[in-house]
Amino acid sequence: MKNLVWVLLLAGLQSHAYGQCPDRPFQAVTLYYQANQGGGLEAGLWPVETSRLGGFLGLGLIKVPGYAPATTKGATPAGANKDLLFNTYIKGQFRISRYLNVTATAGLLDFEKAYYQAGLRGTIPFNDHSLSAIVIEPQYGSLGFVVQAGVGFKIGN
């Protein structure tokens, strides 16, 4: 809960700093579902025309088949762990086109196992002037193939 407060505070501070500048990356919060594994939220800067780079901080609860935290190793057979793991990560984003971005993610599961993922993030705005969009992001890396889907919202003006 403490980390969630920090992420929302960071997003709010970024929103205040950049909210009045439409030519700069804007702040966004994305609520996502990770297919058959869990979900979470991320907050950060979304790239726009004048800047191709963006970044996010994220939190979530996910299942990782075959992974058991150190505290439960030996308690369940390999591959049988069904517990949700706390997931924290940072994600960099590079804009290729208006609706397509390349992402690179580095994170920790239960603050003990590092992982990485690379992906493509597609966005579908609700309309041309919308402050929200549907986000679809297939990723591949040390957690295997994962698809995230969610709804992103612009923060601030």
Provide structural commentary:
Residues 1-22 have low confidence and may be disordered. The protein is elongated and about 45 Å long. The chain is mainly beta and 157 residues long. It has an 8-stranded antiparallel barrel. The two termini are 27 Å apart. 11% of the residues lie in helices and 54% in strands. The chain has one domain: Beta Barrel (Porin). The protein has 1 helix and 8 strands. It has one helix at 2-18, and strands at 26-34, 38-46, 53-62, 85-97, 100-109, 113-125, 132-141, 144-154.
List the helices and strands and how they pair.
Layout: H1 2-18, E1 26-34, E2 38-46, E3 53-62, E4 85-97, E5 100-109, E6 113-125, E7 132-141, E8 144-154
Antiparallel strand pairs: 1-2, 1-8, 2-3, 3-4, 4-5, 5-6, 6-7, 7-8
Annotated CATH topology: Porin
Q: What strand line-up does the widest sheet have?
A: 1-2-3-4-5-6-7-8
The percentage helix is 10-25%
Arithmetic mean pLDDT? 77
- SSE order in H/E notation? HEEEEEEEE
Q: Please report the distance between the alpha carbons of the first and last residues.
A: 27 Å
**Major sheet characteristics:** 8 strands, antiparallel, barrel
Report the principal-axis shape. Answer: elongated
Count of DSSP H/I helices: 1
Please tell me how large the radius of gyration is: 16 Å
Broad structural category: mainly beta
Q: What is the CATH class name?
A: Mainly Beta
What is the CATH architecture annotation? Beta Barrel
What fraction strand?
over 45%
How many beta-strand elements? 8
Number of domains: 1
Unreliable segments (pLDDT under 50, ≥5 consecutive)?
A: 1-22
